[in-house]
């Protein structure tokens, strides 16, 4: 058995990007693609080969904290592919009893029926893209499932997985605070221990961006979006699922361990088209990224073992900034000594700004721990701009 060692704070994760979807949602700017057919055996072999490439680079003895299958729609993968990837990951880094293995899924009937197969393959946590609990808003969001299918899939998932989460999007066109409160209450009745609640953002390159630019899509203004956010915090706090991160709520112990690797600035291997990674090698932090186009990625893996672009060194200054930007998303905050270590010995924040923001109730500094308050996390972009100059 591999020794239980981990030399990098924050943990060590594996991210697997499955780039294919049944359809492209109009708000989505993720690296997802619609294809008529996918050669599953070919793609499985390529995923395994790229994992082997990165495993050869990771220092011996590192053990996985978590594995996350994202996309795209990884629930379109055959359970056999998931099992093969997990078997290879176990060979390289070990998958102990405490390792979280999450798979993102869509709640269509054909995919929900495969939940048991994913559980048998080794997945122990499901994250489902529900997005709305009424048919009218699901149609606006371009989702292919109905509210009835969503609730049925949630019930099925709860019967298969002990740990389970689902996503909702708020600040949708025409949404009121009262309607959102009612929807959240229904969501809480179905939730187990975790909810991801994202404000709708209009991203360049999406269909929603085009519609918004020409005035055909109107979203809540900043004040209403703020009211929706605040209503979210009140309801989730009352339900015992406070925000442990800007958009993520959980009962104690039910937090997403994989996402905590990101937010705590740990290391992670990213495989599949468009996957990013961060690896600490000989004291240096290396950023990795693979080619976004699925067919080009596949060809490069088959020819050379990986679809990755050249490594990019993350400078100490960048490391300090990244660790701060990730850490302040968390309710637990981040330690100044950790930030200083990442930044090569220099404190990467403006301490005068820390004092000023603290007086305005947006930050707290208790001993070594720098934390954004609830108000600060709601205004995190402005807080970070002030801290980083």
Describe this structure in words.
- There is one protein chain.
- The relative contact order is 0.12.
- The chain is an alpha/beta fold and 389 residues long.
- The chain is built from 16 helices and 17 strands.
- α2 (79-93) runs parallel beside α4 (115-121) and α7 (177-190) runs parallel beside α9 (222-238).
- A hairpin with a 2-residue loop joins β16 (363-366) and β17.
- Residues 1-5 have low confidence and may be disordered.
- The chain is globular.
- Helix content is 41%, strand content 21%.
- The strands form four sheets. The protein has a nine-stranded mixed β-sheet, sandwiched between helices. A three-stranded antiparallel β-sheet has the order 12-13-14. Strands 15-17-16 form a three-stranded antiparallel β-sheet.
Can you lay out the helices and strands and say which pair or pack?
Blueprint: E1 12-18, E2 20-21, E3 33-34, H1 40-55, E4 66-71, H2 79-93, E5 100-105, H3 109-112, H4 115-121, E6 125-131, H5 135-140, H6 147-160, E7 163-170, H7 177-190, E8 194-199, H8 207-213, H9 222-238, E9 243-245, E10 248-250, H10 257-263, E11 267-271, E12 276-281, E13 284-289, H11 294-304, E14 312-314, H12 316-327, E15 334-335, H13 336-342, H14 351-359, E16 363-366, E17 369-372, H15 374-378, H16 380-388
Parallel strand pairs: 1-4, 1-11, 2-3, 4-5, 5-6, 6-7, 7-8
Antiparallel strand pairs: 8-10, 9-10, 12-13, 13-14, 15-17, 16-17
Helix pairs in contact: 1-2, 2-4, 7-9, 12-13
């Amino acid at each position: 058995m591999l020794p239980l060692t981990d030399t990098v704070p924050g943990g060590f994760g594996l991210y697997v990007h499955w780039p294919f979807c049944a359809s492209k949602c109009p708000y989505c700017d993720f690296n997802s693609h619609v294809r008529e057919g996918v050669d599953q055996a070919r793609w499985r072999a390529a995923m395994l080969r790229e994992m082997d490439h990165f495993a050869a680079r990771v220092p011996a003895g590192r053990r996985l904290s978590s594995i996350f299958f994202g996309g795209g729609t990884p629930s379109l993968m055959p359970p056999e592919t998931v099992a093969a990837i997990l078997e290879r990951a176990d060979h390289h880094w070990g998958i102990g009893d405490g390792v979280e293995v999450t798979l993102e899924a869509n709640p269509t009937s054909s995919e929900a029926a495969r939940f048991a197969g994913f559980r048998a393959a080794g997945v122990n946590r499901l994250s489902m893209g529900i997005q709305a609990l009424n048919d009218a808003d699901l149609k606006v969001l371009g989702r292919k499932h109905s509210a009835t299918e969503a609730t049925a899939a949630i019930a099925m998932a709860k019967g298969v997985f002990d740990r389970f989460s689902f996503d909702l999007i708020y600040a949708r066109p025409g949404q009121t605070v009262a309607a959102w409160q009612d929807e959240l209450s229904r969501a809480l009745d179905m939730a187990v221990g975790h909810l991801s609640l994202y404000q709708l953002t209009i991203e360049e390159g999406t269909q929603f961006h085009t519609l918004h630019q020409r005035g055909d899509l109107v979203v809540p203004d900043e004040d209403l979006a703020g009211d929706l956010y605040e209503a979210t915090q009140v309801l989730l706090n009352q339900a015992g699922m406070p925000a442990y991160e800007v958009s993520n709520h959980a009962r104690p112990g039910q937090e997403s361990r994989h996402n905590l690797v990101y937010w705590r600035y740990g290391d992670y291997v990213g495989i599949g088209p468009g996957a990013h990674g961060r690896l600490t090698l000989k004291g240096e932090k290396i950023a990795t990224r693979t080619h976004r186009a699925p067919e080009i990625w596949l060809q490069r893996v088959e020819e050379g073992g990986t679809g990755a672009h050249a490594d990019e060194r993350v400078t100490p200054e960048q490391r300090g900034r990244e660790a701060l930007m990730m850490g302040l998303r968390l309710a637990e905050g981040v330690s100044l000594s950790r930030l200083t270590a990442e930044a090569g010995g220099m404190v990467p924040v403006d301490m005068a700004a820390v004092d000023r923001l603290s007086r305005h109730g947006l930050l707290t500094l208790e001993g070594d721990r720098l934390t954004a308050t609830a108000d600060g996390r709601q205004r995190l972009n402005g807080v970070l701009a002030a801290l980083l100059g």
